[in-house]
Amino acid sequence: MPEIIRCLQVGEEDWSEKYDLPANIEWVFFSNDEADRMIAEKLQDKKRSVELKFHAILLTDLNTLVDAKYIFKIAKPHQVLYDSSQEVSPFLKEGLHRLLAQTVDVSQPMDILHDLSTYFFKSQYGHRLVTESVVVQPKFLGNVSHRSSCEMRIKADFGEQFQPVLNYRDTTKIIIDEYRKTNLFLEYTCEGNVELQFVIETLNMYSGEITKHEVFSQTELDNMIEYGPIGAHQVVNFHLFAKGKGTICIGSLQLRYSRGRYGEFTLGGERLTNQRGHEIISFFDPGDFQPPLCVYFGGWRSAGGFEGYRMMKNLKTPMMLLEDSALLGGGFYRGDSELEKKVIDSIKEKLAFLGFSTDQLILSGMSMGTHGAIYYGAKLHAYGLVLSKPIIAFEPIIRNYKLKGVGIFPTALDVVRLIEQQTEMKGYQEIDKQFFDSIAEDGIEHTKLAMVYMKNEDYDDTAYERLTRYYLSKNQLVLSKGLPGRHNDGLDAAILNFQAFYQLYLTKYFQRN
């Protein structure tokens, strides 16, 4: 059964009486005249207030809507839909702006109903197919090499016509959903005059008969491919074709439930990418429009989507989530100048939307996310940093990988390789030096620092000492809390202390309860 999508329509005519609704939509209609009053009454009754939880709110007749105070009170950012061609009062316009409402064309009701049914589900889901899942065609005569656990290079003269190069063998990991669409995004680069083609085949799982054959151009592959829904008893195969002469560098194949034009992973989610296919996703919630803006850089995450939503939402401040989708679980938010500029510009854009300055900005993260928080915190001259289990250098991770056991974050070597590919830096020593030179040059000592660290750290066991020594050398205060255990120990205690530092910042420096 598909997930039930609860939709509230506020307008003049009830669409459920005029149109055939998709089977998975639960429709609630309030007229423009009565909507605010009915919502206010339900909010006063705790038992009935649960009836006001919706996946989407559709305002079909804004030009005759007068009272919307309580409509806006129950609405969440990015979930309100309205027709921008309709004239609205300044009050409604401001409310829609603060909720980051999305526009639709109400003259096309069936398109809107389709989108509500397909894209406004509750959960987020995605994962990666790495190069271990790739099978090169048996008759392929080119040169194939692996530069890391997440990078395959294929060099050949592929000919003047498209020919099959590879497919993905582990079809059990390909997202197949009977009701939702799926987005597909390949990390790749090409050298020479190579042109790619991506083919998706849908087959009957019992007979093997091909029921659908879709061919996508390289341009479509660059812009993200959408496929599905896939019917019952079907399987999907992916194939990559190529023509021309040169080298193809293949990384992870990203799969996630599609939100259409309404977001990435979740409603309102955004993508920041460079030409090499390195992707960082972001989500913004303006909260109560009162400072500070709290930005959270997610940690290493093999599953797709955003980390830390509930934790940051509970702060009840404007918030922004960032997640690095590269490799097996993230690329430490480092990349070429194009990608790093997009991260900085995205945060500045949210500050401008709120009317805040960088003195009203806190950057934070856990584990891998601390690297991004420190790096961009220095560049943005943020007011404060809140860190848990900081990682600032690759040299100690690689050293500990050799000395303390091969299970200690081997993918750090892939991250170094990724940064090398996107910059002119060579080796972890140069990458580390650039990091420390950058934060010193940008004057990070003027940014307040609070951090939770592990006393038996086995990833970057120099981070706490280096940060503390640097701040103290500048006569700056450091707030810290040490916990017993190694990097992956004591997660609950680390989160509690992380949240405690945040609460301290909010109450002491921003006078928030």
UniProtKB/TrEMBL annotation:
It holds the Pfam family Asp2. SUPFAM superfamilies: alpha/beta-Hydrolases (SSF53474). InterPro entries: AB_hydrolase_fold, Asp2. GO terms for biological process: protein transport. This is Accessory Sec system protein Asp2. It comes from Enterococcus cecorum.
